[in-house]
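Private note to self, pasted from the team thread so I don't lose it. Backbone tokens:
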């Protein structure tokens, strides 16, 4: 009961008092960093907004910042989540290209067809360390120095089980994990 009341109170604070979730501020800061340095960046997200009350609004946060200053792809397995995301994004939906289906397969296709670089990636599709690892493996060669990778929920379940040690032990990446909600890893390609 306590957690339901607290969750509801947090939504009220955000809506009426303008409080911002730390999750959203991490995304905002990372995307703004890319927009300051890169003309027409390419940004990807795996896993879009899933419910009207989710609270993270990652797709909306990114689309609102990018607008027409770059390309933003959102990969989502379930069509109903894409529809929800479109509702939440409202007028900013036109800045998002949704790719429905398995994120790994769609990323493989996009990398082989048209992606040569990725400036920003937000991995948040499945709470499965193996799946996140496969997504990363597909796009790893597209990261150039200065690219930013953000992975959500790395301190929860096993989402960061493979990816976090790989990034931390790789000289091509600098990373930190912020204890935001369920942990967010922010990694910069050097």
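Design output:
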């Amino acid at each position: 009961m306590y957690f339901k009341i607290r969750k509801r109170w947090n939504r009220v604070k955000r809506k009426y008092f303008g409080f911002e979730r730390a999750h959203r501020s991490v995304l905002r800061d990372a995307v703004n960093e890319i927009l300051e340095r890169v003309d027409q960046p390419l940004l990807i997200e795996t896993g879009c907004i899933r419910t009207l009350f989710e609270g993270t609004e990652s797709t909306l946060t990114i689309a609102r910042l990018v607008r027409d200053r770059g390309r933003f792809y959102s990969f989502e397995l379930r069509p109903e989540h894409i529809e929800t995301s479109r509702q939440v994004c409202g007028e900013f939906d036109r800045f998002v290209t949704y790719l429905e289906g398995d994120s790994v397969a769609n990323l493989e296709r996009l990398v082989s067809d048209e992606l040569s670089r990725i400036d920003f990636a937000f991995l948040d599709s499945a709470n499965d360390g193996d799946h996140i690892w496969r997504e990363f493996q597909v796009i790893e060669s597209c990261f150039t120095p200065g690219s930013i990778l953000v992975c959500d929920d790395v301190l929860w379940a096993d989402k960061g089980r493979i990816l976090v040690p790989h990034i931390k032990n790789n000289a091509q990446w600098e990373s930190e994990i912020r204890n935001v909600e369920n942990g967010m890893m922010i990694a910069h390609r050097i």
